[in-house]
Amino acid sequence: MSGEAGRSPRAHGADMAAAIASLSRQAREGWRLARDLDLASAGRGPRAEGPPPRALVVAGVGGSAIGAEMLAGLTAARGSVPVVVVRGYRLPGWVDNETLVVASSFSGGTEETLSAFREAARRGASRIALTSGGALADEAAAAGVPVLRVPPGGQPRAAVGYALFALLGLAARCGVLSFDDADAAAGADALDAAVRRYGAAPRLRGGRLPADGAADRLAAAWHDRMPVIFGGEHLLAVARRWAGQVSENAKCWAFWLELPEADHNTLAGFGSFSQTLACVLLDGASLHPRMRLRVRLTAEALRDHGIPVEVVSASAPGALAELCDLLVLGDCASLRLSERRGVDPTPVPALEAFKARLAATHPPGSEGELDGA
Question: 117 and 263 share a domain?
Fold first, then answer.
């Protein structure tokens, strides 16, 4: 323990940098795990074996939910079945025996996700567990529910490659969207290219900075300001990811806003914070043309208020490739910011302390209160 405490933030950061560098491997493995999972006990098999669910609900929070948000963004325009992310204890009232519920908890002990998983059983929904173990895996196995097990260890947010591509695989097998091995391979390749482009682990490359210093420029802009990330359509989940990564890795607040919604309200209040904020707007060629226009005009409006703004355009074509490209850039930028701030990006003591406080209010035997039964 004392040896760990004596490590520098840069040494600690090597763990998170290695996780970023492994995203393409995670993607390929996550896709394989979903492809090989026996879904018969969930009442769901490959599309040819039966009709798709009426809706796909993914229950999860934090790092275990961000892959689901990305899936929802990708399926909004091309999917045949709605994908809904539940970040809480209760499922929507319409969930029934025609709904597929995927409970996603990296640790397997997330109380909100366990609550939703148990409620799904009471509603008669088909269920799948996505986890590395814990109570979720145990309860699923006891009930005969398929368990897609990802490797344990590390922080949930560092396993986003597993989460996204496992969910893409499950969604494809259940008829939620059309997505195949070639699509998965292209997405994994996009992650690999982004890792090379943005230099996820320069300390592993002899300390040399990559030719493209986009992550470093963002970290420099954020060093003494509060980042606000704008995103729309499939890039909204990426904006959410960026804000979460800055908060957890660099230990400073960051927020995300949705376009075009922010142009109808939030934009009116930015004049009071010109000395505090640094804004980023995410752009990609796959966005609706009017959305891309809004990205440019919103940036101009923010600059008129004296707020530093950067428009970041994805360097890869196609919605999934754009998402993967900007996912890696945001992760790298948050890591660079943690170095500038001299903090260890991996542990999240404030979150662990809150979980301990919350757990203390639920003594053994209070499961009924926990799951709303």
Answer: no
Same domain, 39 and 129: yes
The CATH number covering residue 83 comes to 3.40.50.10490
Q: Given 12, 223, 305, 355, which residue is catalytic? A: 355
> In this structure, are 139 and 229 located in the same domain?
no
Shared domain for 44 and 109, answered yes or no, is: yes
Sole residue written with tokens 């996820």 = 200
User: Residue 77: its pLDDT value, please?
Assistant: 87
Residue 201 is assigned to a structural domain of this protein: no
Clarify whether 248 is annotated catalytic.
yes
Is the full-model pTM beyond 0.85?
A: yes
pLDDT tens-place string over residues 318-344 = 999 999 999 999 999 999 999 999 999
Q: Which domain holds residue 151?
A: 16-179
| Catalytic-residue membership of 251 | no
Q: Which of 130-139, 207-216, 250-259, 288-297 has the lowest mean pLDDT?
A: 207-216
For the question of residue 355 being annotated catalytic, the response is yes
Selecting among 112, 233, 248, 322, the annotated active-site residue is 248
- Please list, in sequence order, all residues whose beta carbon lies within 8 angstroms of the beta carbon of residue 230, skipping any fewer than 6 positions away: 239, 256, 257, 258, 259, 262, 279, 280, 281, 282, 295, 298
Cα-Cα-Cα-Cα dihedral sign, residues 84, 88, 91, 92: negative
